[in-house]
Specification:
11 strands; Immunoglobulin-like; 4-stranded antiparallel sheet
């Protein structure tokens, strides 16, 4: 067994050599977690889930300033990319999803304090 400890957020590749044959893994993004990051994640709430039309993103934490909110489809394409200014402890943002197909999506909420990634189901 091989162990690797990542100490920073970065993209990593792994070379595996067996009997003289080397194969390189695809690139992986490793994200480390901090206590501040965990507090940020706990303050992000997504509802309703599953969603039909309007998705509410509530951010209740001390992270003030710029937030980037992205919604990503199952193919990995960013379908919504919005930057907002959060100026109070509690903030709520609405996203209109009625034009998008049913399926599984990811929502990423990122600030300088951390990043939260959650799965949503679009009916």
């Amino acid at each position: 067994m091989l162990q690797f400890f990542a100490d920073e957020i970065a993209n990593y590749l792994v070379d595996v050599t067996i009997n003289g044959c080397t194969v390189q893994t695809s690139q992986m993004r490793i994200i480390t977690s901090t206590e501040e990051d965990q507090l940020f994640k706990q303050g992000v709430t997504i509802y309703p889930n599953p969603v039909k039309d309007i998705l509410n993103v509530q951010v209740s934490n001390a992270a003030l300033g710029e937030l980037q909110i992205r919604i990503i489809n199952a193919a990995g394409s960013i379908i919504i990319d919005k930057t907002v200014q959060k100026s109070s402890f509690d903030a709520e943002y609405k996203f209109y999803l009625s034009e998008y197909k049913s399926g599984v999506y990811l929502i990423e909420v990122t600030s300088e304090k951390g990043k939260s990634v959650k799965r949503i189901i679009k009916d």
